[in-house]
Design a protein that fits this description.
single chain; 217 residues; alpha+beta; 2 domains
Length: 217
Amino acid sequence: MVLICAALAALGGCAANLDADQARLCRTILPVLHPAGAFIRVLRQLPATDGLGLRVDYTAQEPGRPTRNHFAECRFGGGPQSPDRRALVSLTTERGPFGEAGLLFLKRFWLETSEAGVSDPSPVPGAENVGEVSREVAYGLQQAVNALPLAAIYGLLAAAYSLVYGLVGRINLAFGEFAAAGGYGAFFGMVLVAGLSPAASIALAALLATFTATLHG
């Protein structure tokens, strides 16, 4: 118990060093530092040692140019518990610090607009630590995760079917095994023949459903 409390306290202390609002404000500045159409990917966010800001390391691929590494250091008027914790007081990039006029224009014509709120290149905390996959793989994983609840229900039903079959040695049509097997056959048939005409698709799906139900019996 003592070790658990100590670990929770340590995690809480680490989490408090990086203010979520300050990190979001600093990230929303990144798009205006590059031409329109630049692709920005946040690599890491490091809190300042005094708790008054953070440094964001990121890459930017501007149109027609290779990807380059950049950073932005944002300083704020106060720490996490201060009312001025969202007041940006300085901004430094690899090109040097922003002047007072540039900082004023940045706050007035960007940070205070509605566009800034939707320009965060990394709106999900910790997204910079997640690996990238192709759109097809991501879609497949999404569908697999979405299917888990239904698969769990079907797994329980399959266990019940197996138990009844093992006890009585016969298939109970009231359980709908034929209908379920035929439905799966029809579904996969429709997927396989998606490019055919509607009539041919329906006919082939019905044939596969009948064949699957026959094999199941």
